[in-house]
Amino acid sequence: MSTNNAEVVINRLKQVFSVTSDSALCSKLDVSPQTLSSWKARNKIPYANCVEVSERTDVSLDWLLTGRGNMYVQRESSVETEVFQSPPVGMTMREQKWLELFRGLDPDVQKNILQHAEKEQRMYELERDMKELNELKEFVKSLKNAG
């Protein structure tokens, strides 16, 4: 997402749930305040969360992500929707399989998987940042030794 897009989507999410505070939104999304803060800091909201809100509330995913079109969608019968719904452009077969499996799980299991994935993503980002800092440290050290 480009600059401030996450904040715009967060504001739309607040509109969907008729809440004004971050803490109330966290409650509606069943995420921790730290998770919401990390979304803002990274300027990224997990796509799966947006899809889940769209399906749960009949809010247009296009509207939620871009602000275009109508806020609410008219849902057809679930069988028709399932048959004719195509995966998002750019989604790999592996991602489609993950989504299919994920949707078949109990909501509590889904929540645990999402929390674990978010934790893993934070760890990956921290490790990447640490590597970058160590490289910078070595570079500064080499400059000191050269001069």
- Please give the radius of gyration in angstroms: 19 Å
- Estimate percent helicity: over 70%
Strand content: under 5%
Number of helices: 8
The run of helices and strands is: HHHHHHHH
Number of strands: 0
Question: Which residues sit in consecutive blocks of at least 5 with pLDDT less than 50?
Answer: 79-84
Number of domains: 2
Which structural class best describes the helix and strand composition? mainly alpha
As for the CATH topology of the largest domain, it is 434 Repressor (Amino-terminal Domain)
Please give the CATH architecture of the largest domain. Orthogonal Bundle
Q: Assign an overall shape.
A: elongated
N-to-C span: 42 Å
Describe the structure.
- The protein has 147 residues and is mainly α.
- The chain folds into 2 domains: 1-90, lambda repressor-like DNA-binding domains (434 Repressor (Amino-terminal Domain), Orthogonal Bundle), CATH 1.10.260.40; 105-147.
- 72% of the residues lie in helices and 0% in strands.
- The protein contains 8 helices and no strands.
- The protein is elongated and about 70 Å long.
- The termini are far apart.
- The model is unreliable at 79-84 (pLDDT under 50).
Features:
434 Repressor (Amino-terminal Domain), mainly alpha, 8 helices, 147 residues, 2 domains
Quick recap:
One of its GO terms (biological process) is negative regulation of DNA-templated transcription. By secondary structure, the chain is an all-alpha fold.
